[in-house]
Amino acid sequence: MPVAQPSKEIHALCYEHHIQMNLNQIFVGTDGVGTQISAYACPEPDCFVHYSSSHGYFIPSQNGSGVETDSLMPRVRCEKDGIPMYLAEVLAERRSFRLWTCPKCSMNHAVNVKIAAR
Questions:
Q1: What's the pTM value of the predicted model, to 2 decimals?
Q2: What value, to the nearest 5°, has the Cα angle with vertex 72 and ends 79 and 6?
């Protein structure tokens, strides 16, 4: 079974923990057909956040039958080619700053997000 390899290594951050994710091989299935893909995974224990350029940010389903997304997951797409972008940088001194990067064309998109008061 062929395994899709990323064209270049990226430095994706987990959108929850803001730490660098590690490249892994995971099994996902859709419509009864399974495949192994390369995806970045958060190294934080009990965090199931993954990223791939084809799915964007996702959580593999528990039974391995596919991927799960919800409305709280970031859905930032490249304006040039429509590829899901990854979180590349956050700044400690500016907690609301997020830099998103396209894995295909390396285009950047910076945004400031609202941070809820705790």
A1: 0.80
A2: 50
Cα 96 to Cα 33: distance, rounded to the nearest angstrom: 40
Q: Which tokens in the block code for residue 9?
A: 């290594």
Angle (CA) 62-64-67 rounded to 5° is 80
Instruction: Supply the mean pLDDT for the chain.
Output: 83
Q: Which of 26, 2, 4, 6 lies closest to 86, judged by CA?
A: 6
Which of 37-41, 71-75, 107-111 is least confident?
71-75
Which string of DSSP letters, residue by residue, matches 15-78?
TTT--B-EEEEEEEEETTEEEEEEEEE--STT---EEETTTEEEEE-TTSS-EE--TTS---B-
DSSP-derived secondary structure letter, 12? P
Residue type, 79: E
Q: Which two tokens stand for residue 113?
A: 């997000």
Please report, as a single letter, which amino acid is at residue 87: L
pLDDT tens-digit profile of 3-50? 444 456 799 999 999 999 999 998 876 666 778 889 999 999 999 999
